[in-house]
Each structure stands twice: as C-alpha cells, then as structure tokens.
Design goal:
Length: 240
Amino acid sequence: MEALSMTASSYDHLHKYLDDPSYTKPPPNKTQSPLEILSRLQQDTRFDGLFAHQGSVDLALLFGKHEAEVLEYWNAWHIADPTKEFQASQKAALALLVASHKPGGKKLYDFFIVHILTTSHAVRILLPLLPAKFHVPLVRQWWLLTLVVYILQLRPAIDLSSVTDYNRDGKDWAWVDRQAVAQSKHSLDSHYVKALRAMQTADETWGPEGHFWLNAAVRFAEEFDGWGGFASGMSRDVHL
C-alpha cells in the first residue's frame, strides 16, 4: 500500500523518460548485468566533480549537464530474462548499500542508498500483482532511480567480497530477526528494520546463494550505528 501510495503521489519529471519512448534507445554497450553497469559508471570520469559532497538533491544540475550520459547508462541494461535479471538487480541494490559503509570508519550507512534496496523490495512485492506488460517498465523506473541516487551519492566503489567473505560467526536469520525487533538499539528505526526485512525476503525469494543475503544482513546489523550520506547542514530527520 505504501508503494502504491508513493507512486500515486510522487509523479515527477523523471517519469517523462518512461512516458516518452524516444528516450529509450539501443545502447552502444548493452549488458544484462546491473552490477557491470554500476562498475562502469563508478569509473566514468565525466561525472567527476559534478557535486562537491554527498546528499545533493540537485536533479536539475545532473540532468541539465549529463542527461545523455545518465540515459546511456539507463538504456545499457538490456532486460532479456526479467526474472533472472531482477534477481541480479536486487543483488546490486544490496551491494550498493554495503559499499556505502567502509570498515574502520564511522559505522554509518547511506540513508539515500538504503532506499535503492527498500524500493527494490517494494517492486518485488508489486510485480506479482501487476499485469505482465508493466513489469519491465516498473523495473526500469527503479533502475533510473538507482542510477540517479548512485551519482548523487558520489558513486562509491562496490566490492562484493565484503559480503561474500564476511564472517558471520555462526549467526543466522533468527539472530537477525532479534536485532530487528528487540535486541538492537536501532529496532525503532524503521529504515533499519526495512533494510533487514528486504534482505531476508530476498533470501526467501532467490535462495541462500552462498549465504550472500544472510552475510549482508549480519554485517549490516552488527555494524550499523546510524545513517550518513547527508550534505553538511542537511537535517537527519528526512523521510523518503
């Protein structure tokens, strides 16, 4: 219901890229891997120096200067197998969240990037309820949001080994559940809880896959100590 309400009330200028088919063009370097596209984007120097800090919400600057480049990456995802590639997109969303926190620094995760994961979860909930003709357009709408947020948050490097090689020390989903609802001081933070729920649902949907989702959930629950990614002076009391 929340996802449907947000869709109905947040119809902004970004939707023109879906409404107008002229923006959908064959890409020069298409791929079926969202992570590959994000890796290319991370290394694309055309976006260097566009924003001085994380937390900018200046979409006019981004699309005013780099609309063609953003759409190049948007169109680069060639969705040939929607189910398999949506699974890959959820893995990319989780990898982005983990990438927003660097071990050894402040234990803050990016508040804006977590919404890439939780909106992916919302898309997963909606897809079975919608006619098939809307499936790919909805996923592509989420993909555009992902690219925009990733650029605004200064394109952190993604390292999957930080998830796959994480030592859970025997912790399981029951332990994660307890952190979400009772034992963590962050249990009343709805964004913290929603992130853990999205990870658990992905595990239930796609299978353990080498404990990828569980590793990420345990790491997130153990390390999380608040949200970062805000511009200097921006209120932390933000709702997306």
